[in-house]
């Protein structure tokens, strides 16, 4: 499977409902094609807790290696992705909640004083959570309890307890970030430019894209565009384009036996099927034909 996202990279999954805007789910990296979930964003805040294994978790310009017992806070509207470390699987708890779960009603004092400061500051994209810090250990322990009770034992959990614990977490994260110097405007500009590059690639990956095309779209020279993308995304621009094209080809291989591999390669922007097969094997560790056969038999 892969995430359901639109062309602007917004995840379309429902995260709770209006009455209780919280979603608690177990995620396993190997369930995603290629052991990775693609770059995306959503307006909900996300807390992630690693149950087993490791994950390379990327949020905006930051990259974390998270191991069992670690966690990470991802702010509203941040770009994030994740992938396996050394091809090993990872199980993690994902808890997403709308900001109004903290502040209650629009323009409340809690929203204007304590929530908007976090949501509106682009330097506050994420924070790794470890048991070395008391208040972070408390939220990690609570997330572990949620995993055991809600995911493993399928028990109903007290919504009020969840609200109390998340409110305490919010107070601590507000105190932490409000003590840091402000570099928000520079980060905001960088993230907006990254989003522009990704949006352009996602809209045009099926065409014979050139570096000139991408760089001109964001008003950068080619060398600066490559340097900027690699610095912020930890992957070269060309490698990301190839990876994204391969990911877009997977549903075609799985869902439609009537379309040939040559046609699929053309629809995904590859110059020929041989090159497509070479790149496919690099990322998926098998040929397109083998992948189609294996998926047909599962």
Indicate the topology:
Blueprint: E1 22-28, E2 36-40, E3 45-59, E4 62-67, E5 71-74, E6 80-84, E7 90-97, H1 100-103, H2 109-119, E8 126-129, H3 134-152, H4 159-178, H5 184-204, H6 211-217, H7 222-233, H8 237-255, H9 261-267, H10 273-284, H11 288-296
Antiparallel strand pairs: 1-7, 2-6, 3-4, 3-5, 3-6, 3-7, 5-8
Give a structural overview:
By secondary structure, the protein is of the alpha+beta class. It folds into two domains: 22-183, Jelly Rolls, CATH 2.60.120; 205-296, Arc Repressor Mutant, subunit A. 47% of the residues lie in helices and 18% in strands. The chain is built from eleven helices and eight strands. Strands 1, 2, 3, 4, 5, 6, 7 and 8 form an eight-stranded antiparallel β-sheet that branches. The longest helix has 21 residues, at 184-204. The mean pLDDT is 88.
State the CATH class of the largest domain.
Mainly Beta
CATH-defined topology of the largest domain: Jelly Rolls
Helical fraction equals 40-55%
CATH superfamily of the largest domain: Jelly Rolls
Rg, please? 20 Å
Total helices: the number is: 11
Strand percentage lies at 15-25%
Q: Give the distance, in angstroms, between the N- and C-terminal Cα atoms.
A: 13 Å
Oligomer: single chain
Q: Find the count of extended strands (DSSP E, 2+ residues).
A: 8
Structural class: alpha+beta
Instruction: Compute the number of structural domains.
Output: 2
Low-confidence stretches: none
**What's the helix-strand series?**
EEEEEEEHHEHHHHHHHHH
Shape: globular
Overall pLDDT level: 88
Report the sheet with the most strands, covering strand number, pairing sense and barrel closure. Answer: 8 strands, antiparallel
Q: Which CATH architecture of the largest domain?
A: Sandwich
């Amino acid at each position: 499977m892969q995430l359901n996202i639109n062309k602007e990279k917004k995840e379309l999954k429902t995260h709770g409902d209006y009455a209780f805007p919280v979603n608690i789910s177990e995620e396993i990296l190997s369930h995603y094609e290629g052991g990775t979930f693609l770059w995306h964003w959503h307006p909900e805040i996300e807390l992630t807790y690693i149950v087993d294994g490791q994950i390379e978790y990327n949020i905006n310009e930051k990259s974390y290696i998270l191991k069992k017992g670690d966690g990470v806070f991802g702010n509203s509207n941040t770009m994030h992705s994740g992938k396996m470390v050394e091809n090993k699987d990872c199980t993690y708890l994902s808890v997403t909640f709308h900001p109004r779960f903290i502040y209650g009603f629009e323009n409340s004092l809690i929203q204007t004083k304590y929530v908007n400061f976090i949501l509106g500051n682009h330097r506050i994209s994420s924070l790794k959570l470890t048991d070395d810090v008391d208040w972070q250990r408390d939220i990690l322990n609570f997330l572990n309890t949620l995993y055991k009770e809600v995911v493993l034992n399928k028990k109903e959990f007290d919504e009020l307890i969840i609200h109390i614990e998340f409110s305490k977490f919010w107070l601590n994260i507000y105190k932490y970030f409000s003590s840091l110097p402000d570099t928000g405007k520079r980060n905001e500009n960088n993230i907006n430019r990254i989003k522009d590059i990704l949006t352009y690639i996602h809209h045009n990956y099926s065409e014979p894209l050139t570096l000139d095309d991408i760089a001109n779209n964001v008003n950068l020279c080619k060398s600066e565009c490559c340097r900027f993308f690699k610095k912020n995304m930890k992957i070269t621009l060309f490698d990301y384009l190839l990876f994204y094209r391969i990911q877009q080809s997977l549903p075609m291989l799985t869902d439609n036996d009537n379309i040939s591999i040559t046609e699929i390669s053309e629809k995904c922007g590859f110059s020929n099927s041989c090159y497509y097969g070479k790149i496919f094997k690099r990322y998926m560790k098998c040929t397109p034909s083998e992948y189609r056969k294996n998926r047909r038999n599962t």
